[in-house]
Structure formats: structure tokens, C-alpha cells
Write a structure and sequence with these properties.
Length: 519
């Protein structure tokens, strides 16, 4: 039975947004919502017909808010705002994120505070349902009066302009419409403004970041546990009694997960009475470091889901002759947590690189550089160069975009959030993090085989064997970038975490039981 989501009525979550974008959930409008949309649009039409001064309906935009627009020009005004604001540059954003922008915009407009026509919403729904997704440049939004430039590009196809993707192929909108035998629509009063006002660019990047960063958090715990096993570390620092004394939710969960992951390990038991007092921080402090990143992730998730269900248009139409011109379009509420999450993602990579380094030192029974015949072979020396380079790059990307502001619109928009940059930058950091974690996973799998015939826990042995089904043990040097890319794909497409979690569940262990992915 097909799952349905009622735009403007149901609560939109990160999980549901992803499901709508994947077309596994169908988004619809119910009769009650349709009636509200029609009433809101009628309020706007009445104001326009009466010639009342309403920002963006009978006036210009931004610094031109005091410029009166004649009744005969109100429709032209909405057409022109999409044209004039389509100033984006750079590469197109991913198709999935452009589709998320359409989905999140429909949900915001369907709450019936924007005065748009039902026919306009139905056309946007047509784009979603037929996967005719607009081409949106990645740069040009300052995240203040909404994501003006990217949203203008997103909705150029409504008036027959711009480009779209059909089956992943970039096509002129006019050619796409000819294929489907449809034409452009006519925009009513305020509609152009309602379409470009909002934070849908920022929130769509946030949705993907929430999904992707959670996957990295899950992977980091599994991979970190494998590195600890290979390095003959102890699980004593994960004792729940310790973490009850400093009960951050992320810390407690990571400690719990690590305890589950390391349960009944022969490797762990083999050095139970050794004279090593403490492990290095990158092993011992995984609950504190991974946990802090989980806390940041949770904060971002909570705020993203508030934004997903918010009205970020301007002005807001509350009823007949009742409008408020405010600042709900300002991106600061998400810009700051996106920057915070950027640091959280970067730190996951930072500590992962430290574990890669530890695995190469030739300590605690491991051969130096994880090969027996080094000299002729460089072993795993160079993959750690790559993690070092990626970690350094991520550090430079951690400068908070939200700490910057450059006035626009001749000073009318004198404080902007730069949240669009925050969202893009976080996803760039996660791109690098996927590779860093893949290299640690590759290195840990190599190292753990030097503990044979001892076995790790059942879960970690499954994780090791799963990787080995794609990448073999390295007896000598080879082109490691091939291995890195294979393992990176397992991490980035969620399959590594998904498979390990499924195996653990068969063993009766729910690894994320107290911190659900999408609670």
C-alpha cells in the first residue's frame, strides 16, 4: 500500500522528506488544505483588486518596496521577479537536493499563508511526480530574504524558462514541456515573491546533511571499535557507570554502542591482564568525541525539522486585510547549527586520522606500516597522507559562514545569514569524511588480520568480512586508491552501516536503540 503524506497538514520530518524525494512516499493535498489555499489566494486577489499597498503585491521588492506598481502590471511584476533574481552561478546542485527544494516549498506554501494559486502548487507537484527537476546553480544565495537566487532558478520552469533534468539529462524547459505537451503557467499577485522567499535551499542541504552525518556517526563507532581491537585496546573506558557521571546523551550512546560492538571478543579477552594502563585519547575518548558530534547532530536535526514545518515567506497572509511583513525568511536559525555541525563532522575525521596513524606505528604487536616486507613496500604509509590532507582541508572549511554578513539591496537587507554557504560547506566536509572513514576502515581491516587466529566480536568480524568481499588483504603495495574508492562507496551509500546494523539485529542487538536515526 502506497504511503501518503499530506502537504500543509502532516508534520514533515527528515525521514519523510528523503522518502518523498525517493518517490517511496507520495505527497498530496487534501480537501481541507485545498480550501485554505483558495481562501488565502482570494485574500491576496482582493487586496490587489482594491489597490491596497501590500509589499510584493502592489509594490516593488527590497529597496524598491516604496515603489507603487499599477494594477495592470501586477502579473508582470511576478514574472519579472523570477527573471531578475535568477543570478545563480557555479555547478548545478545535486538533483536530489533540487527535488527536496520543491518538496519543502510545497509544504510551506500549502500551509496557506502565502496566497498562491492552487494551480501553481499543482504544477510544482507535477514536477515532483514526473521527476522533471529544475537545474539550480549552487552559488548566489546569501540566505537572508530567503534563498532568492536558487529559488528563482528552481521556479523558472513554471514560466517556461530555465532548464530541467529528465531522467538525469539536462534539457531546456521549453523542450521538456513540448515532450509532455504542456505549457507555462501564469502567476497571480504575490506568487513570484512567495516562490522565491524562503529557506528551502538551506533546509534541503540540511536534510541531506542530517541523513549523511548520521551515517558517518554510525560508521565511525563501528570503524573505531575495529581499530581499537587491532590496537589491543581496552573497553574499560566505555563502562556505563563512568558515563552516568557525565551524562551527555551522545556520550552515553557511543559508550553503549562500543560495548555492544566489542562484546565477546577473543582479541579483547587475550590481553585482559596486560600491563598497559591507558589507551591514547583517539581510542579511549571515542564516547566523548564521537558523542559530542552526535549531540551536535541531534541539535541540527531538531532545528531542521522545525524549519521543515515553518512558513518562511514574506509577507505572511493571515486573513483579509491582515498581513505581516517580517523576517521569517532569514536563514540564521539554521546557519548557526549548520556551522556547528560542520565542526562536528570535521572532528569525526580528525580523530579517525589519529587512529589511522596509531595503526601504522608498529606498536602492540602490529608490524610497522602494516606489512611484513617494508622498505621495498611502503605499506599503508600513504593512505594516511590522504587522511591528513582531507582533515586539513576540512579544518579550513570550518570557518563559520554565519559569522559573516555583507549588506545587500542597497542596505535594506543589511544583515544576511550566509546559511546557504553553511549548508553546502557541511556537505563538502561530509564528502571528505566519507573518504577518511573509508581509509580507517581499510587500515583497520588490514591490521586486525595480524591478530589471527584470534577473532573479534561477531559483529566486528561480520564488518571485516563484508569489507573483504570487496577489498582483499594487501600482501604488498598496490594502487590503494582503487581500494579506497570501493570502501568509500560502501560507507557513503549507507550499505556498510546498514549491513552491520542488520547483522547485529539478527544477533538481538539494536545498536542505536536509545538514539534513533529519525526519532
Amino acid at each position: 500500500m502506497e504511503t501518503k503524506f499530506f502537504y500543509g497538514k502532516d508534520t514533515l520530518t527528515v525521514e519523510t522528506s528523503i522518502s518523498l524525494a525517493a518517490s517511496t512516499t507520495k505527497g498530496v493535498l487534501d480537501n481541507e488544505t485545498i480550501e485554505k489555499i483558495r481562501n488565502s489566494q482570494q485574500h491576496i486577489q482582493n487586496m490587489a483588486d482594491a489597490g491596497k499597498t501590500v509589499y510584493g503585491v502592489t509594490t516593488g521588492f527590497g529597496i524598491l518596496a516604496n515603489k507603487k506598481i499599477s494594477e495592470e502590471d501586477t502579473a508582470t511584476l511576478q514574472y519579472k521577479i523570477l527573471q531578475s533574481h535568477s543570478v545563480g552561478v557555479g555547478e548545478p546542485i545535486p538533483i536530489e537536493i533540487a527535488k527536496l527544494m520543491l518538496i519543502t516549498k510545497v509544504h510551506a506554501l500549502a500551509q496557506a499563508y502565502s496566497g498562491v494559486q492552487l494551480s501553481t502548487l499543482e504544477r510544482i507537484l507535477w514536477h515532483i511526480e514526473h521527476d522533471v527537476i529544475p537545474v539550480v546553480p549552487e552559488k548566489g544565495s546569501v540566505g537572508a530574504s530567503g534563498d532568492l537566487a536558487p529559488l528563482a532558478h528552481l521556479f523558472l520552469p513554471l514560466i517556461g524558462l530555465g532548464e530541467v533534468y529528465i531522467d538525469g539529462v539536462r534539457t531546456k524547459t521549453k523542450d521538456a514541456f513540448a515532450k509532455f505537451n504542456i505549457g507555462p503557467i501564469s502567476l497571480g499577485p504575490k506568487e513570484g515573491l512567495a516562490l522565491i522567499n524562503g529557506t528551502q535551499f538551506i533546509v534541503s542541504f540540511a536534510v541531506k546533511a542530517v541523513q549523511r552525518l548520521h551515517n558517518c556517526l554510525e560508521a565511525a563507532d563501528i570503524i573505531g571499535a575495529m581499530s581499537l581491537e587491532a590496537l589491543a585496546g581496552t573497553k574499560a573506558p566505555f563502562d556505563p557507570r563512568l558515563h552516568e557521571l557525565r551524562p551527555f546523551i551522545g556520550n552515553k550512546l557511543v559508550a553503549q554502542r562500543l560495548t555492544h560492538l566489542l562484546a565477546d571478543s577473543d582479541i579483547m579477552q587475550s590481553h585482559y591482564d596486560c600491563d598497559r594502563v591507558q589507551d591514547p585519547y583517539s581510542l579511549r575518548c571515542m564516547p566523548q568525541v564521537h558523542g559530542a558530534s552526535r549531540n551536535a547532530w541531534l541539535h541540527l536535526k531538531e532545528l531542521t525539522e522545525i524549519e521543515l514545518n515553518s512558513v518562511t515567506d514574506n509577507p505572511i497572509i493571515l486573513g483579509e486585510d491582515d498581513t505581516i511583513s517580517g523576517g521569517n525568511f532569514h536563514g540564521q536559525p539554521l546557519a548557526i547549527p549548520l556551522d556547528y555541525a560542520c565542526i562536528a563532522a570535521s572532528e569525526l575525521g580528525n580523530i579517525s586520522d589519529r587512529r589511522c596513524y596509531l595503526l601504522l606505528e608498529g606498536k602492540w604487536g602490529l608490524p610497522i606500516l602494516l606489512m611484513k616486507d617494508v622498505g621495498l613496500n611502503s605499506g599503508f604509509m600513504l593512505p594516511q597522507y590522504t587522511t591528513a590532507a582531507l582533515v586539513s582541508e576540512n579544518k579550513t572549511l570550518c570557518y563559520p559562514s554565519s559569522a559573516d554578513s555583507i549588506p545587500t539591496s542597497l542596505g535594506q537587507e543589511d544583515h544576511v545569514s550566509m546559511g546557504s554557504i553553511s549548508g553546502r560547506k557541511l556537505n563538502l566536509v561530509i564528502d571528505n569524511l566519507d573518504f577518511i572513514l573509508a581509509i580507517e576502515l581499510m587500515t583497520a581491516c588490514q591490521a586486525i588480520e595480524f591478530r589471527r587466529p584470534l577473532k573479534s566480536s561477531a559483529i566486528l568480524e561480520f564488518a571485516h568480512d563484508y569489507v573483504r568481499s570487496y577489498v582483499s588483504f594487501a600482501e604488498e603495495d598496490r594502487v590503494f586508491s582503487d581500494d579506497i574508492n570501493k570502501i568509500k562507496n560502501l560507507v557513503a551509500d549507507f550499505s556498510f552501516v546498514k549491513e552491520v546494523n542488520a547483522f547485529a539485529e539478527k544477533k538481538g542487538i539494536i545498536l542505536n536503540e536509545s538514539f534513533n536515526q529519525f526519532s
